[in-house]
Amino acid sequence: MTDTPSWKDLAPLRRGRIRFGLQAVGSSAPVEHVQTHLEREPAYAEIANRWGTLDAAKRDSAAARLDELFRNAAYATRPYCLQCGQCCANAGPTLYQGDENLVREGTLPRDSLITHRAGERVYSHAKQHAVVLEQECVSVVASSAGGCALYDRKAKACSIYQGRPRQCVEQRCWAPDGGERLASSAGLRRKDLLPDSSLALPIIEEHERACPPERLWHLIEAHREGDVDAMVAIRSMVAEDERLRQQMLDTGAAANELSFLLGRSLAERVRTAGISLVDDH
After folding, report:
1. What is the pTM for the complete model shown?
2. Contact between 259 and 230 (Cβ < 8 Å)
3. 211: exposed, middle or buried (C-beta count within 10 Å: 0-12, 13-18, 19+)?
4. pLDDT tens digits, 12-24
5. Contacts of 220 (CB under 8 A, 6+ apart)
6. Strands (E), the chain
7. Any idea what DSSP says for residue 160?
């Protein structure tokens, strides 16, 4: 059995990972510059000091944390945007306080937005898994290829760069503090973006009462577990969702605005869960 390499033995490997990180972010800074940055990081120093006492599982965890520290340190040597489009490729930005005028003035048309309702399960790129939303948020829709619909993949450019949302301005990949500032800010909701006189607001309120996402999820789970009454309730909720969508259209709303006004249709959510609404009998 070979001994586990010591922290000193791994120095060449660390230098190689740093060099790879610099290449990945397009930085021409020397490896020594990144090492100096890392040595100022308390988390890096703690791992270095404790490395010899960690068991295999904790070393794997520490190695993953080191990769993150290497990446952040590499970005810190290149404090500017490469316009690589990677942030745009993940998802459309969420709207925060300060983005209201982008919607009101038409820079962000309502048909480019989607509402994620409280209680919905959505994929978090930051956490790398699905989460249940505690509160409503509005974001730019995703394109058919994935990522932000306002990103022009062919031109490799944002189609509204001069009027891009606050998240796109502040959440810079090389400056994690931008994301921290956003985390302490309030996200925008539909009522923040619609006038008080909007005919859509009472329909939205009725839709929230009649078609709560968390209730739909519980019914889907009950159906999967064999509850014969769950499908009846699912179909009833889907029918109510469709009725209110038609009512929204009757007020003059455009069909391509419904994802913003009422979120994703419940029929689509049920199909995404792998459940057919058609009675096979």
Report:
1. 0.71
2. no
3. buried
4. 999 998 888 888 8
5. 230, 234, 270, 273, 275
6. 113-116, 121-124, 129-132, 137-140, 151-152, 157-158
7. T
